[in-house]
Amino acid sequence: MTLQEGRYQIGGADALEIVERFGAPVYVYDAATMKRQYKRMTSAFSKVKRLRINFACKALTNLNVLRVFRELGSGLDTVSIQEVEMGLLAGFEPHDILFTPNCVSLDEISQAVAKGVRINIDNIEILEQFGDRHPEVPVCIRINPHIMAGGNSKISVGHIDSKFGISIHQVPHVLKVVEAMNLKIEGLHMHTGSDIYDAQVFLRAVEILLSAAADFPDLDYLDFGSGFKVPYKEGGIATDIEDLGEQLGDRFNEFCGEYGRDLELMFEPGKFLVSEAGYFLVKTNVVKTTTASVFAGVDSGLNHLIRPMFYEAYHHITNLSNPGGKTRIYNVVGYICETDTFGINRQLSEVREGDILAMANAGAYSFMMASNYNSRFRPAEVMVIDGEAHLIRRRETMEDLLGTQVDLNVLKESVPA
């Protein structure tokens, strides 16, 4: 977001004009930022002969966003059969979709097999069931490297007490299952967690996966997950993707030489690709002064952006309507009837009723985690392409809220006495 002649722009489109056209609250995504992040990552690993970036679509699954990444040459990382369906609707080829579920039934995995997508399994019992039902289908195995990474316990998934993946210590058991059932293992996968900023921690996990890979002779790819950190504050800590690309690229090429052929190097970034592309624009309903604080109460809440309350995530807040105003301290809060805070003690240009505030880093896991709590409608989504704003999801209505409910009074009236 840039300030041009006293007006904030998102991707070249005037932010306040977007609110005038589409209303508030509204999510706004800059397609140019998504493309920049994708190209930055492919450039960082340019020395790798076979590279595949699979967008982790759970971060932002709007069909129009998926198409942006498909056109860039991305694959897709999915975690539910519904995401698989979305990927196919967006035009991805089945072979370019990797299905990496957790704690789902074999029936759901079989639905994905029927779609022709690649399968990633993280449970020995399910692996055995899969081999019995689909002995001819190549499969990837998710390994838990027991490396702790992540800025919050809820997004740290590679530690020893995690529900994700098959323990690296159980690989001998996996090898016995593979041999007994004559399974074709085409890939190995790991994911340590989100908010990785220390390349050395990540590289330790890489060595663990490479060590395991040496025991699987028919691999086609290695998937190293993602979780790369993006900055949430000016000057904030972020993963040095270029440094990681230099180090990991060299090590991966060395391993391929030892393995005897060039494997494909996969990553599945979500936040890295879309977090900085997104902004959440809200309108100030009230400014309330108490004996201890000044609250800016807005027309949204944790029903639309739960990350501050759920993860204690920081989203930088800017007053778009009064960029030159005197700086004051505010607690920015929502309209949900419980503690519902977006930011505490934030320095903002003086906030007035009706002012539009923008919350940054709202491209990943923001709209996707929105709900109808308090029977509120979910907001609209807008994407800016080449400086022009396009509606990519309309705001919900009362009809949407009632669309799946069954009115028992209507049923009773339709049944003869």
TrEMBL record:
Keywords: Amino-acid biosynthesis, Decarboxylase, Lyase, Lysine biosynthesis, Pyridoxal phosphate. Pyridoxal 5'-phosphate binds at G227, Y365. Its cofactor is pyridoxal 5'-phosphate. Pathway: Amino-acid biosynthesis; L-lysine biosynthesis via DAP pathway; L-lysine from DL-2,6-diaminopimelate: step 1/1. It is an enzyme of class 4 (lyase). GO terms for molecular function: diaminopimelate decarboxylase activity; pyridoxal phosphate binding. SUPFAM superfamilies: Alanine racemase C-terminal domain-like, PLP-binding barrel. GO terms for biological process: lysine biosynthetic process via diaminopimelate. The modification N6-(pyridoxal phosphate)lysine is found at K58. InterPro entries: Ala_racemase/Decarboxylase_C (IPR009006), DAP_deCOOHase_LysA (IPR002986), De-COase2_C (IPR022643), De-COase2_N (IPR022644), Orn/DAP/Arg_de-COase (IPR000183), PLP-binding_barrel (IPR029066). Residues 33-275 form the Orn/DAP/Arg decarboxylase 2 N-terminal domain. It holds the Pfam family Orn_DAP_Arg_deC. Substrate binds at R307, Y311, E338, Y365. The active site is at C337. Specifically catalyzes the decarboxylation of meso-diaminopimelate (meso-DAP) to L-lysine. Homodimer. This is Diaminopimelate decarboxylase. The gene is lysA.
